[in-house]
Structures are given as C-alpha cells and as structure tokens.
Amino acid sequence: MRNHLFRCHQFDNRTVLPALAAIHLVVADFGTSSVVLAGSRKQGSGNIHSALKVLDLVPTRYHNNDAEVPSHHRLINDCMYDILGAQSKQHDKIKGKVDTPRTRFRKEDMFMQIMELHRRGEITSDTNILASVLSSCADSKILTRGAQLHALIVKVGYNSSVLVGSSLISFYSRCGQLENAHRVFQDMPTKNTVSWTALISGYAQDNQVEPCLHLFALMRQSVCKPNDITFATIFCVCTNHAFLALGKSVHGLQMRMGFDSYVHVSNALISMYAKCGSIGEAQSTFESIACKDLVSWNSMIFGYSQHGLAEHCLSLLKEMEEHIVPDAITFLGVLSSCRHACLVAEGRHCFQAMIEHGIKPELDHYSCMVDLLGRAGLIDEAWDLIQTMSMPPNGIIWGSLLASCRVHGSISIGIHAAEHRLKLEPGCAATHVQLANLYASIGCWGDVARVRKMMKERELKTNIGCSWIEVANNVYTFTAENRSKSQVNNVLAILDCLQLHMECKYDILIDGLECDDHEHLKFSLNTI
Question: By CB atoms within 10 Å of each CB, which of 105, 109, 131, 429 scores lowest?
C-alpha cells in the first residue's frame, strides 16, 4: 500500500489530498503491514465499505477539455488487492494458514466485493474494473460467477463496451463456452482487433481449425487489421496441423504489415517452419531476429532436435551460453536430440551440466536419459537412474524402459517396467500386449493368459496408428489397416513398386560383389 501512496505524488496535491486522507483511513483500518494489522486488531474491525469510498474521491481527468476519461484504475485495483488481501490474511491467520505476499489475495473476494458494492450502490464500477474481474474469473475458470457478472454488465448497460465485450469473449473462450463467446462477438455493435483476436484464439485453443481460419479471413475483410497476437495464433494453428503453405502465405502478410520485428511472432514462425519440415526457413527466421530471447533459442534447439540434428543442438547450446542462461526447457531439447542420435556421452554431459547450472531435473529430463541409456543397451544403468530419482517415475519413463527391454532382450527388467506402468496406467492396452509378449518369450503361459483375461475384462483395445501429410495444399490422413480411401491403395501400389525396385538393385549389388558367403552378406546388409 505504501507503494501506491508514493504514486499519488505525481498528481496535483490539491486534487489528491482528499483521496490521500481516505487512503490513510484504509491503511489504518486494513493495512497489510504487521504494525497496522496489530493496531487494527486493537481498534476492532473497520467498515470496509466506507473505506472503499476512496474510489469516489479519486479525481477524474479530462481529455481535450470535454471528453471524460476514467483515471487511476491501476491505483484503484491495487488498493482493492491490498484491502482484500489484508482481510484474507487475517482470516487465514485465524485458521492457522500460512500466506504468501501476493497469493494470499483470493480472486473470488474481488468478485464478491464488486457484486456487494453494486448491490448496495456504494460504488460505480467502470468498464476497466469489470474487465479486470472478468479476467480473474477466466483465470479461475469459474463459469457461474462470470455468467453472473455478464448479467450485471447487461443490467448496468456496459454490454456495448468494446473492452467489456472482448473480456467476455476471452472469458467464455477460456472456459470452453465458445458458443457463448461467438454470441457475444456477434452482438457487439463495434468490434476491434482485440475482439477478433480473442475469438480466433478461443477457437485455436479448442482445436477448431475451420472456424478459426474462417474468422481470420473475415477479419481480413473487415476494417480491423490483425496484430502481433493474431499472427502468433495463426502460426500456432499452422504448426499444430502442418499447414505449411498457409503459414508461408500468412508469413508474407505479416512481413508486409511490419510485424517481422516482433520477437514472439518470429518465435512462432520458427516453431511452425521446424515442425512443418522446413528447418532451413526456421534457421533463416532465427538468424534474422536482432534481439533473441530465451524462447527464440529454445525454439531453434527443439527444431534441430525434431530433425535429428543433434550436433547442431549441441553447437547452438554452446553459442547460447555466451548470450543467455539456458533453462530447463533448453536442456530438455538438447537431451531429446541426444536421445534420438544415441549420443550417450554427450547426453550424460548435458544432464550433468544442467545440474551444475542449478536446474533440478524434472520427469521429462529423466525420461530422455532413461530412453537414451535404454536405446544404447545400457539397461542396468537406466534402471539405476530410475532408482535414484528424486520423484516417483511416471508411466512414460517406465514405457521407455519397457521398449528398450523388448529391443535388447532384458526380460526380467522389462516385466518389472510393464508391471509398474500398469499400476500407473491400468487402461493402457499397448502395455498389456507388451507384457503378455514378454511372458510368452520365457514360456510363462499362465501369466500370458492372466494378462489377456485382464484386457478382455477391461475391454481394452490398442489404438490405431495415424499419420498425415500435406500435398498440394491438401492434408491427407492415413490410419493403419484402413483401405477405405482410394489414395491408400495408390500409395500401397507405389510402395510395392519401390520394394520391387529396391530388391532388384539389391540383387544387382549382391551379384556384383565377390563374396563367397552371400547369405552372411545379406544378413549384414539387412541389419544396417
């Protein structure tokens, strides 16, 4: 609260003195310092509704001598945080709870306080305060209270406000109520860029691609122009659905509108190009960023990792350490690249370097290390690493160890890994199948029958594999053992031709080599 008092010195003393006197009353009755709280307990509980009348005493400012503009909303919000935070602190101390400086304020208190003050008519909230309360409801995903606040907004006549409408769209979108968000959007008499972007982001977060892109096309036809957040959202949609052609088109639009200097937009571009297979474009975008932030470096490292360029990841990490301190996500990307490239020594060094940087390994880091060691056949070392973890391993870690055991024939550890994973994920059909196969490999047919019976009782079925590819601006999806699409038969025909072509080249290679043991040579080539 003292910080908020200091802010008042920048205003005219004659206009602020009444407000300062009222704020002093608030501090005296509801201050957050220990001295004030002690004095407050001696004086008894104060009247917070009277103290909050300080908001009515804060002077307004005028723009161009005629248009009144709300002022000092930051001061208002901060005062409410401190006042309500003090109440929460006293309440928690009575119940023996330990509070933290900022989290002690409960967001629902702000909602209840606004509703109570409106009911009593002791304060008139403007659009900024209502938007702030809507944001708090969205953070907490409290749909009922947000709906109540929406009714209050309609009652007091603020439903035509662009700020409030945009906040309502964001609130309903974050609560998964996209129909209500779209209805609010349609009912808005005036829309701005924030309104369009809020709804586009809502559909993007809900993975509804067609409405998201349709809205973006409509926005382009309206008077509102996309901003940096809009472009970042569209790039994320292109990333998640491999829309490379669309992403390139939007990239060109973004550059023409002058948003290429925005770092977070460039970061989204790096991820899009990397995940859509254009690692060269991702690298060009990365190099064009004048002031790279942590996300820029991490995005490029993960891009290299996804393309199997482990050496590039390690080189970029060294370069990064000269400019910025890496974080846990950075080392996760490097460890992931070492895992796929089976660089055991480099992975160990990276894991140790992360600890030396003061970063505590998380489950994802342990998962990469277990998978790296397992792929290299170091099953015992992977098992020992799991036993020394500072946290219980999850199903992914046990699954990685199980897969490695199947490849390298470590039956006993594989059975232990499968049993542990089934305790965490009893509905995983693939683990049941793997466990049954492990038991079958050592002739434990009774255990095989037990696992199969368990699958039948739980009605478990393995998930069908799915893949997709973009060809000529169209995305084609394929599922295993699904011959219903004509394209699948065409693809299989081409694969058969390729296989015959490879076998022909293979036979020519064998016939052209001077080797007595052709069968041994064939075995050697098949294992490459």
Answer: 429
Measured CA to CA, the distance from residue 398 to residue 403 in angstroms comes to 9
Angle at 158 between CA 154 and CA 163, to 5 degrees: 125
| Burial track 342-379 (b if 16+ CB lie within 10 A, e otherwise) | ebbebbbebbeebeeeebebeebbbbbbbbbbbbbbbb
Rg (CA), the chain: 31
Would you say 43 and 78 are in contact if contact means Cβ atoms under 8 Å apart? no
Residue 233: name the closest of 261, 198, 181, 274 by CA. Answer: 198
The answer to whether 231 touches 255, Cβ cutoff 8 Å, is no
Nearest of 288, 219, 221, 278 to residue 248 by alpha carbon: 278
Burial class (CB in 10 A: 0-12, 13-18, 19+), 48: middle
List beta partners, residue 67. Answer: 63
The DSSP secondary-structure symbol of 9 reads G
302 or 109: whose pLDDT is higher?
302
Cα dihedral 485→486→492→496 (10° resolution) = 160
The pLDDT of residue 204 is above 90: yes
The answer to whether 172 touches 178, Cβ cutoff 8 Å, is yes
Helix, coil or strand: residue 478: strand
Cβ–Cβ under 8 Å, residues 245 and 470? yes
Structure tokens at 71: 């002022």
User: Per residue in 346-397, pLDDT tens?
Assistant: 999 999 999 999 999 999 999 999 999 999 999 999 999 999 998 999 999 9
Contact of 81 with 132, CB cutoff 8 Å: no
Pairing relationship of beta strands 474-479 and 61-63 according to DSSP bridges:
unpaired
Q: Residue 314: which H helix or E strand, with range?
A: helix 310-321
Instruction: Encode 414-477 in three state secondary structure.
Output: HHHHHHHHHHHCCCCHHHHHHHHHHHHHCCCHHHHHHHHHHHHHCCCCCCCCEEEEEECCEEEE
State pLDDT tens for residues 20-69.
Answer: 444 454 444 444 443 433 343 344 444 445 545 555 555 554 444 444 44
| Cα–Cα dist 53/2, whole Å | 18
Residue 470 has phi, psi (to 5 degrees) of -100, 125
Distances (CA, A) of 277 to 240, 310, 330, 469: 12, 16, 21, 11
485 φ/ψ sector (left φ>0, alpha ψ -120 to 50, else beta): beta
